[in-house]
Amino acid sequence: MDLNAKAQYLSEVSLFESLPQEDLLDLASLSTIKKYSKHQIIYRVEDEPEEVFILIQGIIKIISKSGEGREVIKTIIHPRTLFGMEYLSGQDNRLNTAKSIDKDIICFSINSQEFKAYLKDNWQLTEKFIKMLGRKLSYLEDRFESLVFKDARERIIDFLKDNAKTNGRQVGLEMLIKHSLTQQDIANYTGTSRQTVTYVLNDLKRQNQIYFKRKSILIRDIANLS
Question: Is the N end or the C end of the chain the one with fewer CB atoms within 10 Å?
């Protein structure tokens, strides 16, 4: 991928979409393309946060381990999203582990120090970055409230609605979500069990609220999904 192609892709990332072409080319020149296979670790908790990543292709999960050793999915990363930003918030080590879900994962990698220096020299970009962090914090607060106050069925339905919003495609009045998540992944994300996810999805299917296959979920009417 040449410099202009990198810059074109960066222009489609919400954080960079209003930057002048010259700035996009500068950022593109700082980036390196990295590829990962399915289930490959991109970085581990406690690693030094030497790089910031921008996902180009595939899906990545940000995970940690519970006290019992169970995998907990904190965030699911879709294309055109930044991740691995601990250094920018003053952390000396990675707080979580990033692991690929899809095969053929492609990322841009930018040295954390170089990216931080670039932010310092570009107030417009820094302001957008701060707003992005604010949205991320709001999202995490919503997830925390969901885990505390909602039952398993509500959390799984929230997961479906969130994914439809971020990764869905409108098909008439229906919403199609294509994904690479297993039912265990959904359980790890919603704080439920795989058996509960299976039961809720099958119950929604029985009620004709959704239709699902291994790598896709069709929501009949997202406004009335319950």
Answer: C
| 3-148 belongs to CATH 2.60.40.10 | no
Note if the pTM is more than 0.90: no
Residue ranges of the alpha helices (H) in the chain? Answer: 3-11, 21-30, 112-120, 123-149, 152-167, 183-190, 194-206
**For 142-182, what is each residue's pLDDT tens digit?**
888 888 899 999 999 999 999 998 889 998 889 999 888 99
Measured distance CA(162)–CA(71) in Å, rounded:
21
Bridge-based pairing of strands 105-111 and 174-178 is unpaired
Q: Which one of 2.40.50.140, 2.60.40.1220, 3.40.1440.60, 2.60.120.10 gives the CATH number of domain 150-224?
A: 2.60.120.10
Return the SS3 of 6: helix
